[in-house]
Structure prediction request, 460 residues.
Amino acid sequence: MNTHDLYVKTPPLRLFFFAAMPGAVSMLASALYQLVDGMLVGKLLGGTPFAALNLAMPFVIINFALADLIGVGSAVPISISLGQGQEERANNIFTCACLMIVFTGVAVGAALYALAPALIAMMGADGEFARLAVAYLRVYALCSPVTTIVFATDNYLRISGRVRASMFLNIAMSLLSAGLEFLFLGVLGMDIQGAALGTCLGMMICAVAALGMFAGGRLQLKFCRPRFSWAMVRQIVVCGTPNFLGNIAGRITSILMNALLVRLGGQNAVSVYGILMYVDGFVQPLMYGMCDSLQPAVGYNWGARRLERVKAIEKCCFTASGILSLAAAAVIFLIPEQLAALFATDAALIEQSVFALRLFSATYLTRWFSFATQSFMLAVERSLQASVISVCTALVFPIVLIAALWSLGLTGLWLNFAGTSLLAGVLAAVLLARFASVFREIAAGKRQGEGQGERQGLCP
Prediction:
């Protein structure tokens, strides 16, 4: 199905199942791999490597943050340009964005490789704990020029209408990464570097395969001679800023949380936090997969000013996110021990994790609303509102609650997630209510313009 027919003519509910469900499956494959990654390291290598992985993970995600800024930031104007019929402009943004991601991967990877020992030491780690975290981070840094583009190609495939190709790419990446990691750890007996290398090789293979599909010239988006301009770069940065700020702010919060956990509860507390993040890494990608997969459709129709269709698509997005989030809250609350046992064998660690998971489950009672609102704001070029939600959710609210709940010790840190989610939901509701009036004004202006066009013989 071509892009126009998919995004404009397909009924909203059918579009949801055609686009959002494969997107959710794609992210589910990624989430399952993340679970397998934690399980392999925790079960095959032990507690110290598992804690080291979680200590290094915020910096690994920072490694992808700038690439994600460019990938997400370019996807919005590309979709809107296609909706406006400006294919040449869309292809230029796509080509320039790919080059920017590669160059950024080189620069950020080099910086992280050089700074890895100092960054890990800053977290309060030393000895074998610190050595393993540095080794893990440096593998990602070395592979950065090729791995960081893989998530952007996923966006570009969906924009081109190749939703299933995007899904199969993510499934292949997860299977490859998990298989290679098991080979390196379970068969060849490598240390934590093998875990990072398995993941990176899986990403690199799939990134090259995806770029090859675009190089063939048969997709909606095509490589062309790049024509950079400050206006284009600025637009990419503005549209990608909400995700970027969310990534960076979230990692700053993770670094702060890890530093506090090391001091309040030691290695076990860091491991409990890691288990919470792995569980979150299963639920949040499903929501992200659904919302992100519908962004090209929302952006395309927003660019074409088909506002009623935008509303219909977003109703599906909000409803599905709410159902998924509430189901996740119930599952985490009901079977926390089974979830903790996936990553740990120590009875004391599992007991700590069960208590933390039950408190953590309340996060999903409200998390869906701010998440879907942020995705919607980004799709309709309301980057400021999306950035406010992103930064407050990832940094401002958590830090405020760390101070407010400090007297509760570790319990206060576990309650931080649910409190942040509630505050983010209130903020999202306020911003969405304000935007609703703007949306109605745009719709009224469009109808008035159509009426004038009809009177002047300009509309069929």
User: Anything to note?
Assistant: The two ends are 27 Å apart (CA to CA). Confidence is low (pLDDT under 50) at residues 448-460. Residues 3-450 form one domain. The chain has one domain: 3-450.
